[in-house]
């Protein structure tokens, strides 16, 4: 299986900050990468698909970039609702895999 | 509107099987893949596999090969995930998710989750 490594594991930030989360694949996945936001007790919510496409209804402060093995999720100006856990997922191979998650907490 | 409604919580004994359903509505069931993932309490997300409701094709994560079966009933627009030989490590919330569409298989719409507890 393709391994997905996210960093950092935990990120402390303030409202209004610009933050970046990184995801690295163990082999090239082209742009078959998604980013999800998850809050406690809720299902994941799709933010970005195909590395940089914004899912309908998701605020434009979220953006994604990258290809091959290196990807980033950027939140341009953190809002109170953005404090949550973020996961990347590759769906290039026959077997999809998630990163271990990044917990975004209030500083 | 797109909705995925999953079956209720299950309690199973070790060695048993569980079958979780995912009732789809608000879109053409055969036009989108269904992914299945799970999440143990306080842990990350793990993919079990995917199913193409149109063809019946499936793809299972290596870890679950031989132990998971994903099927669909197009007449009632429902997907199923059956996991056998359960152990306590299978205790988790199981989710179904509908793909974005076309050749993009990211999970765009999600069910509410089904808690499966394995305990003797």
Please provide a brief summary of the model:
By secondary structure, chain A is an all-beta fold. Chain A contains no helices and eleven strands.
Tell me about the largest β-sheet of chain A: 7 strands, mixed
What is the N-to-C order of secondary-structure elements of chain B (H for helix, E for strand)?
EEEEEEEEEEE
Task: Give the number of DSSP strands of chain B.
Answer: 11
Shape of chain A: globular
Instruction: Show the largest interface.
Output: A-B, 23 and 24 residues
Structural classification of chain B: mainly beta
Number of continuous helical runs of chain A: 0
How many strand elements of chain A? 11
Largest sheet descriptor of chain B: 7 strands, mixed
- Tally of separate helices of chain B: 0
Strand content of chain A: over 45%
Helix-strand string of chain A: EEEEEEEEEEE
Mean pLDDT of chain A: 96
How would you explain this protein's 3D organization?
In chain A, strands 2, 4, 5, 6, 9, 10 and 11 form a seven-stranded mixed β-sheet that branches. Chain A has a four-stranded antiparallel β-sheet with strand order 1-3-8-7, with no helix packed on it. Chain A contains no helices and eleven strands. In chain A, 0% of the residues lie in helices and 50% in strands. With 107 residues, chain A is mainly beta. The mean pLDDT of chain A is 96. Chain B is mainly β and 120 residues long. Helices cover 0% and strands 54% of the residues of chain B. Chain B has strands at residues 3-6, 10-12, 18-25, 34-39, 45-51, 58-60, 68-73, 78-83, 92-101, 104-110, 114-118. In chain B, strands 2, 4, 5, 6, 9, 10 and 11 form a seven-stranded mixed β-sheet that branches. Chain B has a four-stranded antiparallel β-sheet with strand order 1-3-8-7, with no helix packed on it. Chain B is globular. The termini of chain B are far apart. Chains A and B meet through β4, β5 and β10 of A and β5, β9 and β10 of B.
């Amino acid at each position: 299986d393709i391994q997905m490594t996210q960093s950092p594991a935990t990120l402390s930030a303030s409202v209004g900050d610009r933050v970046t989360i990184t995801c690295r694949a163990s082999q090239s996945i082209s742009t078959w990468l998604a980013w999800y936001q998850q809050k406690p007790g809720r299902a994941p919510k799709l933010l970005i698909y195909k590395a940089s496409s914004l899912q309908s209804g998701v605020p434009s402060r979220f953006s994604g970039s990258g290809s091959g093995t290196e990807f980033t999720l950027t939140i341009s100006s953190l809002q109170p609702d953005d404090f949550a856990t973020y996961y990347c997922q590759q769906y290039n191979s026959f077997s999809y895999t998630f990163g271990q998650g990044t917990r975004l907490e209030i500083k | 509107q797109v909705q995925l409604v999953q079956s209720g919580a299950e309690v199973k004994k070790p060695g048993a099987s569980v079958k979780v359903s995912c009732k789809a509505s608000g879109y053409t069931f055969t036009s989108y893949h269904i992914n299945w993932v799970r999440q143990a309490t306080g842990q990350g997300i793990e993919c079990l596999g995917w199913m193409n409701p149109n063809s019946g094709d499936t793809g299972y994560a290596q870890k679950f090969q031989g132990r998971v079966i994903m099927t669909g009933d197009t007449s009632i627009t429902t997907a199923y995930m059956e996991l056998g030989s359960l152990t306590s490590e299978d205790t988790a919330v199981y989710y179904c998710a509908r793909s974005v569409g076309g050749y993009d298989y990211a999970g765009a719409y999600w069910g509410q989750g089904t808690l499966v507890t394995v305990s003797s």
